[in-house]
């Protein structure tokens, strides 16, 4: 009969072959997905499962060691007379049972402390690499340097080549911190960081890698899908929306006509790209635009430009008609009229 996997192992997606190291790694992986400040109850539940899994693994190991130490007796070679001879000397150095229990508890405490040190050490190394990257990233933005993909890729590569990142737990936790940073809300440069991180960590070509981050990974996966959809729209629509996004990143208040026009595009993008937009623009700025829009008098809300666009799009297209040719034609006709007037 197959043994049932205990729920504390299932919690960390482990099987009956899991040892202490596997449990520690699984716990470290899950720990970064929880905000201990706002999810205290969830953290406590996970912590209890973690301690139960460790206790189970130690019991399994102890039973295995005891089984390996058991002597294999051969009844044909057993001297029954030896059982009658009691050697009292073998009992002289047996410690008190309470001392045995105390020693076992002390050893368990030391192992627990080692585990805690291991996890904390991974977290501290990951935090150190992440903080260093953030400082360099913020320095680029503060200097108003054009934060292009090539420049940011070089900065991210510096972090990846840090000696701490030889530890796979540190590397994975650093990757999770970058993902969490993107989902904390837009800051200058985040739109570029999303692209660079997506390529560097292979989130774009292997979406399954995002599954390790739970809900956070799901949101990022949707964001990348929405970004891909954005670039599949027509060139004209994409350019209009791009200009609206860039204008939104400017903290200044736009003029009334521009505000009304750009806000229409922004509202539509928020509806179509609900996961991507919070990463590349400030949602608070969108709300400010909405508030400014309410202040615009109703008579200023009418714009003839959309009507002209519709008319222009409805007109037939001729390859030989260009703006310059139209201007030249007007000039020629005007000159002809003026010449005929003189005569």
Please specify the SSE layout and strand pairing.
Blueprint (H helix, E strand, L loop, with lengths): L6 H4 L9 H12 L8 H30 L27 H46 L6 H12 L7 H15 L7 H11 L13 H17 L4 H14 L7 H17 L4 H4 L2 H13 L9 H10 L8 H20 L1
Helix pairs in contact: 2-3, 4-5, 4-6, 5-7, 9-10, 10-12
Task: Provide structural commentary.
- The protein is mainly alpha-helical and 343 residues long.
- Among the domains are: 1-66; 125-203, no CATH class; 233-315, no CATH class.
- Helices cover 66% and strands 0% of the residues.
- It is built from 14 helices and no strands.
- The longest helix is centred in the middle third of the chain and has 46 residues, at 97-142.
- The protein starts with 6 loop residues before the first helix and ends with a helix.
- The relative contact order is 0.05.
